[in-house]
Design a protein that fits this description.
This protein is an all-alpha fold. The protein contains 3 helices and no strands. Helix 2 packs across helix 3.
């Protein structure tokens, strides 16, 4: 069975999210900007596309972290 582009993207997102959960995320704006600019050149994609993707990934990681913290607060 051949994977569709959509399914490949979903698998890539899950793998990236798992890696971020294990390794953590550094939220230093200047570093993030530099990494996005450099990596977009390396990947041959537009900087704004990688920035938009980073926003999605970081937001999901943040929301998951907030849910965990809420759970701790609710359960004392």
């Amino acid at each position: 069975m051949t994977l569709t582009s959509e399914r490949t993207g979903k698998i890539a997102m899950l793998a990236l999210q798992r890696k971020m959960e294990r390794d953590g995320i550094r939220l230093i704006p200047k570093e993030i900007k530099r990494e996005i600019v450099n990596e977009s050149k390396n990947l041959g994609i537009q900087t704004f596309e990688l920035a938009e993707f980073a926003k999605i990934v970081i937001k999901e990681a943040f929301e998951k972290t907030m849910a965990e913290l809420d759970s701790i607060i609710k359960n004392g």
